[in-house]
Structures are given as structure tokens and as C-alpha cells.
Amino acid sequence: MFLILQLVAVFTVVSLSLLGSFFIVFANLIEFQSSRVLQTGDLIITCLALSNGLTDVGQVPWFLVYILNLCNNTGEDLYKATDFFITFYNKASSWFTAWLCLFYCVKIVKVNWRTFLKLKRRISSVVKVLIAVTLVGCLALSLPIIFFIQLQSNTSSISAQCKNYYINENSFYVYAAFLSFFTSFLPLAIMLASSMTIVTFLCKHSRKMNKSTNAISGSRGDGPAAVAKMITSLIVLYVLCTGTVFALNSLVVLEGNVLVFIALSCSVYSAGCAMILIIGTVKLKEKCKGVCCRGNRTEKPKHAVT
């Protein structure tokens, strides 16, 4: 019964994540195909959604092999491929979330610092460089994980062999701490610094607007405020899911099933991230409404005929 519940929960969350993530990717690709231009913010969102979607693509075979104890049929090579694949795209997703927060911070906040103004003018080029550096850096940081994966042949239980395939060495814990610092805590620091800067600026801006009776000037804060809400929601979701992963890593009660819950929390982040991006981005929200309305229109004639 518990096995069935695991599979149902896993594939429900993964399906929602894949649906939302690839909707964002295809929507932005269609816009790029029609206009031949993809805005910098949309580029980061596309990279974020694509990395989330590919993370779940890698988790589908991993879930099947891990939960159903099929490692004897696939060998440790599949674990090495899926764990590297999942780690690479999941860590890239963390950095893309950080760069999205930084991008909106640069676009929204207005200060007269010379360095900040130069960054604002060159933000499009800087973002492209950051994306390239992120991919190369996450690739280098994720690659060593394959050297810590080895099926334990001395175990009598197939379940223990399939669920405890990481080598318990001090070097592995050093690598895990190193990976967590550079791909979890550093992105979170950038997210928090960017969001706090945006919120502080908007609070000061709203105070100035409240002193003015001009309604047109007051409406200009709606866009930045919506972006601030979206970024805050992404950060809260990231903190909850990342905190869950670190909490589960410290629990002994879950034993072999701990990796299932860790992987599931990553899929929850991907699904929630896609939902937040669609709701918080005007163009994606309108396209989503258009798809839903189109589906309702096609169903109406059928009811009318019957």
C-alpha cells in the first residue's frame, strides 16, 4: 500500500511539474519564433523552467528503479547517469532562480551608483555570461558525484542494495558540504539580498507616491510590486524545499526512503516554481488563459449538438 502511495504521489507531482515547466518553455519559444527576440527576463525564466523540467525527466527512471528495486536489472550505471543528470539541472535551477532575482533587482531599483548604472545598461550581456558560467560551473560541481555511487554486492537484501548505493566515506561528506555551499547557500544569499533590496526600494517609493495625489504616478508601482511578490514566493518555496532536503538528510528514521522524499521535494519545487512563474508573469498568464479558453470553446459546440 505504501509503495502504491509513493508512486501515485511521485507521478502526480512530476506530471504537474513537467506540464508547467514545458508550457513555459514552449510559450517563450513560440514568442521567440514570431518576434525573433526574447527578452532577458524571459530568457532566464526559460532556462529556469527548462532546468526544472529536465530535472523531472531524469527523476522518472530514477523513481522507478529506486522504488521498485530494479537496480539488479539496470546496474549502477543508471544511478550514475540519473544522479548526475538530476544534480546538474537541479543545481542550475537554483542559480537561475538567483539570477532572476538579481535581474529584477537591477531593473527595478533606481540608484545613482556608477557601477550599478553600468550593470543596468549591460544587464542583457551580463545575464548571458552568467547563464554560461552557471552551466559550466554546475557541470564541474556535479560530475564528481558519479565516483561516489557503487552498488553494495555484500548485502543480502535487494532493497538495501538498491537504496543504499552511496559510498559512506569522509570524502563524500566533504563533497556534499562543498556542493551544498556553492549551489544552495550562495544562490539563496543572492536571492535574499536581491529581494530585500527590491522590497526596501518599493517601500520608499510607495511612501513618496503616497505623498502625491497623482493617480497615474501611483499606478506605476503595480508592475514592480507584482514582481516583488513573485520573487518572494519563489524564495519562500526555495527555502521550504531546500530546508526539507537538509532536514531529511539529518533524519535516521526514514533510512532507505529518505532519497525518495528528497527527490519528491525537488519535484515539488519544480511544480510550484512553474505555477508561480505562470501566475506572476503577465505574458505567461495571458497565454495560459488563452489555452484554457480555447479548450472551453472547442467543447461548447459538442454540447450544443447533443
TrEMBL record:
Record Pfam families:
TAS2R
Q: Which domain of life is it from?
A: Eukaryota
Spell out the family assignment given in the record's similarity comment.
Belongs to the G-protein coupled receptor T2R family.
Taxonomic classification: Eukaryota, Metazoa, Chordata, Craniata, Vertebrata
The protein in question is named: Taste receptor type 2
Subcellular localization is given as: Membrane
Transmembrane segments annotated in the record for this chain: 6-30, 42-68, 88-109, 129-152, 172-202, 230-252, 258-279
Membrane as UniProt keyword: yes
